[in-house]
Design a protein that fits this description.
Layout: E1 2-9, E2 16-21, H1 24-33, E3 45-53, H2 56-66, H3 69-78
Antiparallel strand pairs: 1-2, 1-3
């Protein structure tokens, strides 16, 4: 399976992260260990939601969409929990 995950920083809930992975649990552990330069200063992270795909290209396209302007607007309105 291929996953698009949406993470929220526990330390700073305004910080959000959207990414692609094939191992959801390992990806969350990795972010919480500080392996990613882009997310380490906002750790720890918690999983807000995820989407599972059986097709890698569709998962990557969905991740790309969520990172676009209209995708961010959609996610803010429909996918992210209210702040």
């Amino acid at each position: 399976m291929f996953y698009v995950c949406m993470l929220i920083s526990i330390a700073d809930p305004e910080q959000r992260y959207t990414g692609f992975t094939t191992d959801l649990k390992q990806r969350l552990r990795s972010h919480n260990k500080g392996d990613s330069v882009h997310t380490r200063k906002y750790k720890p992270w918690k999983l807000a939601s995820y989407f599972a795909f059986d097709d890698e290209q569709r998962a990557r396209e969905f991740e790309y969409y969520l990172k676009s302007g209209s995708g961010r607007a959609f996610a803010n309105k429909r996918l992210w929990p209210p702040q």
